[in-house]
Amino acid sequence: MRNTNLVILLPFFLATFLVLQTVEARQSLDKIVAVVNNEVISQSELDGYTHLVMSEMSQQPGTVLPPKSVLEKQILNRMVLDKIQLQLAAQSGIEVDSITVSQTIQNLAQMQGLSMEQFRQGVEQHGMKFDDYRDLIRKDLIIQNLQARDVGQNVNVSKTDIESFLNSPAGQDNSGTQYKLSHILISLPESPTPEIVKNTQAQAEDIVKQLKNGTDFNKMAMSKSAGRQALKGGDLGWRSVGELPTIFVSTVPSMHVGDIVGPIRSSSGFHIVKLQDKRQEQAETQTETHVRQILIKPDANTSSEEVHEIMLSLKKQINKGADFAKVAQQKSQENKTAAKGGDMGWLAQDAVLPKFYQVMSSLPNNEVSEPFQTEEGWHLIQVLNRRTQRTSSEAAYHKAHEIIMVRKTNEAVEAWMKRIRDEARVEILLSETNAKNS
Fold it and tell me: Is the pTM of this model over 0.85?
């Protein structure tokens, strides 16, 4: 079986920091390490999660882990924030059905070129029961839905925003330069006193001094950062100038590889950034895909599970020789395309939802996909052809919209997460002695 060490688990553990609660029945026998509103986090939960994260991260080349006692505090903070979000979701009645969970896992397996059996074996080789992994994915999706409802739907990008971006130095940067960044955030409370600001800045300045004297940046980020990528060593990945967080746009382009800059003040705290690498991309082109689809939406009379069964039946009909276009005309609920046999025309990545693009990009020409679900409903799609195009002005406009939306959403999520953390009743009971002996 091919190596599945990181690609299966880390995208969920480190992107969302979900709490895997496999020992709830034994909580009464565990030492309590945190109280979050009316719920607790037990030592055994923390131990299991810490062991799994350390095991996963130790397999990444070049990763230097901080001491377990230090990393444990960082992980506990993430567990607390996840529990708060799951509590809010439960209060709002946000749930995710089993079909959506199964489809998400199947998509993950397909992205890695694995069968479901290979994928299951990869999960279990990491010491996790597959049912626990399904629960982890379910919680991840619940938190995504919560954030989309409480944050995403309130983020808007205006025509003025796009035009201002396109006319800015970042928007007009066509150099193709991309920057690989690592980031540390030393956070401030929502309404800090001058003394707290002074002390936090001093802490950030001391961290910068240590980093410039040779302390490992990834290790420091895992120990100290309040940023969402802390357990990935603060890794922000590869970004163009336009995709950089706003506070870094004027700083990063003039940095040399290895440079460390900060602390930089923002409303959320003090930021420290390191330029790990940079590269020059070729002139921007994009692949466009000619697609047609059948879309059916769940409603008050037809559940998601029933729609899924309908779509499976339609796929069987098409596989047996039924004309896709005629089926689309008869069944598709996408009014703009149904009359055209489901023909959506030529689509670039930024014109469709991420899940839609994921399926579309992996589907061979003329094949019909398995049914898959997005927030628009259940889809069957067929790829007719592909072509490569230089980026047009229209594509640049859509790309600008995407960049601004991602930037605004990330900033809004950071502020929202800080607010719900400050508003929650949280008591941390993990003592220094407890951490050292665990």
Answer: no
